[in-house]
Structure formats: structure tokens, C-alpha cells
Automatic annotation (TrEMBL):
Keywords: DNA-binding, Phosphoprotein, Transcription, Transcription regulation. PANTHER family: TRANSCRIPTIONAL REGULATORY PROTEIN NARL-RELATED (PTHR43214:SF24), TWO-COMPONENT RESPONSE REGULATOR (PTHR43214). Pfam families: GerE, Response_reg. The lineage of its organism: Bacteria, Bacillati, Actinomycetota, Actinomycetes, Streptosporangiales. Residues 137-202 form the HTH luxR-type domain. GO terms for biological process: phosphorelay signal transduction system; regulation of DNA-templated transcription. Residues 5-121 form the Response regulatory domain. Gene3D superfamilies: 3.40.50.2300. CDD domains: LuxR_C_like, REC_NarL-like. This is LuxR family two component transcriptional regulator. One of its GO terms (molecular function) is DNA binding. The keyword Transmembrane does not apply. The modification 4-aspartylphosphate is found at residue 56. The keyword DNA-binding applies.
Length: 204
């Protein structure tokens, strides 16, 4: 199995060096690029095509803005793991609604960070407790999770369940489950209505 290709995006050189050291100590992870800002992150990703970005939320050019830019280019790749010191509801919701696949705080152990990288590559949502609490509140407001938004965007592109599953690296049954959740949260019953409502809410 090939190594997971990671880009480290943080405006503090000491943090980038530390993260690079952590990942390079792992046999299954390869650091293939670094970036110090939002605009640079998008450029590096376009050139390198990594599997995962470990992304600081607040840096020149904006972390959330970088997530939106990357998701506009591709709703599924690369996986985006936010790695930050900020845990307010506003920061968490902003990042996840923009399309992040995980939200981790910088006080975690190295082993937990490494595990989180593997988890997001495997299609699993990685959230610290504060993020889970924020997103539970968001779900109560009938908003969509980052994964559901990703599925919805591919649905809007006319992709079949099989094509979406292949794109996201998940099973067709999982895609169907996400679609049902999307329909329920948007209060619709079919693809056309879901896409129309998504456009009206600015989700796609």
C-alpha cells in the first residue's frame, strides 16, 4: 500500500517543522509539500495533488477561504484536516461547512494526529469534543455535515451512487445513507428538489 501523501499548511515555521518531523517518523505517511498561507496552500495542492492537507485555521490568506477554494475545485480530494488552537463554535462551523473532513486541536498527542490522518483518508470524520458539540447543534438546525455536502455536490454534478462511492472511497450503501440524510435535512424527496434547494442555500 502506498504512503499517504500529506501537505502541511501553517504560517509558523516551527509548527510546520514539528508536524513534518512527526509524519516523517511514520512509515505510512509521506510529507510531500508545505505551505504558509491560504493562497499558497491552493497552489501547492494543484501542483502536488496530495491525499491530505493538515491545515491551520488562521493564517495569511485564511484557512476557511483555502478550504472553500479547494472544495470548489474538488469536493472530495484532498481530505482536509484542520489543525488549530481555536475551538469556538464559529471557527468549527465555518471550517466544517466550508468542507473540512476533520477538526483537531494542537494540544493532541502525536499518535492521535497520525491516527486522525489515517481516519480522514479512510473517509471517517475526525472531531474533537468541542467540534462534536458544535456540529450536534448544527444538525439540530437541519444543516448538513461536511460529508453530506460533499455527496450533495456530486449529486448536483449528476453522478450516480456508484460514481460517488468510487470518488469518495466509500460504499454505495453509505452513499445512499448520506443521500437519505440530505433529503431529510433539506425536507425534500428527490434529487431534483435536493439540488434546487442546495443552490438556493448556496451549498453547491
Amino acid at each position: 500500500m502506498s504512503a499517504i501523501r500529506v501537505v502541511v499548511a501553517d504560517d509558523h515555521p516551527v509548527v510546520r517543522d514539528g508536524l513534518t518531523g512527526v509524519f516523517r517518523a511514520e512509515d505510512g505517511i509521506e510529507v510531500v509539500g508545505e505551505a504558509a498561507g491560504g493562497h499558497e496552500t491552493a497552489a501547492v495542492v494543484a501542483r502536488i495533488d496530495p491525499d491530505v492537507i493538515v491545515l491551520d485555521l488562521r493564517m495569511p490568506g485564511g484557512g476557511v477561504e483555502a478550504i472553500r477554494t479547494l472544495r470548489a475545485l474538488d469536493p472530495a480530494r484532498p481530505r482536509i484536516l484542520v489543525f488549530t488552537t481555536y475551538d469556538t463554535d464559529r471557527d468549527i462551523r465555518g471550517a466544517m461547512e466550508a468542507g473540512a473532513d476533520g477538526y483537531l486541536l494542537k494540544d493532541v498527542r502525536s499518535a492521535d494526529l497520525v491516527r486522525a490522518v489515517h481516519d480522514v483518508v479512510g473517509g471517517r470524520l475526525v472531531l474533537v469534543p468541542a467540534a462534536r458539540a458544535a456540529l450536534t447543534g448544527r444538525a439540530a438546525e437541519n444543516s448538513l455535515t461536511a460529508r453530506e455536502v460533499g455527496v450533495l455536490r456530486l449529486v448536483a454534478d449528476g453522478r450516480t451512487n456508484r460514481a460517488i462511492a468510487a470518488r469518495l472511497g466509500i460504499g454505495e450503501a453509505t452513499v445512499k445513507t448520506h443521500r437519505l440524510h440530505v433529503y431529510e435535512k433539506l425536507a425534500v424527496t428527490d434529487r431534483a428538489s435536493a439540488v434546487r434547494t442546495a443552490w438556493e442555500r448556496g451549498l453547491v
